[in-house]
Amino acid sequence: MVNISLGFYNTFTMMNISTTSPLPEDQISQLMRLVGQPSRILILLAMGEREVCVCHLEAALDQRQAFISQHLKQLRKAGFVIAERRSRHIYYRLANPGLMDIIQTAARLTGNMDWFDAAQNSGPLPNCSCPECSGINASC
Predict the structure, then answer these.
(1) Buried b / exposed e across 71-102, counting CB within 10 Å, b at 16+?
(2) Which pLDDT value is given to residue 122?
(3) 117-131: pLDDT as tens digits
(4) How far is CA 30 from CA 36, 37, 86, in A?
């Protein structure tokens, strides 16, 4: 049996979509929702004030590329992260460094400033093969 009402529901929903811009509280809620996931906080902290490639994030977070890429996709879609391809690597950086201020404020409010300071990017990682960490200026 085919559910014909599904088509009518979609048409009805599409006709009633509001074209007004989101309310400020909705925008703030969306920002907090996107940044509020633990893995995304760690990704943003690993970026900090510089640009990093996915292999660097893999080494910093000890997570698989597919896992990190899914989070980066959401961060890019929200406009929080900018991607730039150079040879075989895609480098990511914060679109707005103010995101670090949000995480730092949250760390301060929760009494986790020591964690915040330790979690920020710490330079080259021994288990990362990116040009920055390996000391090679050419693309890998």
Answers:
(1) bbeebeeeebbeeeeeeebebbebeeeebbeb
(2) 65
(3) 888 756 778 778 777
(4) 10, 12, 31
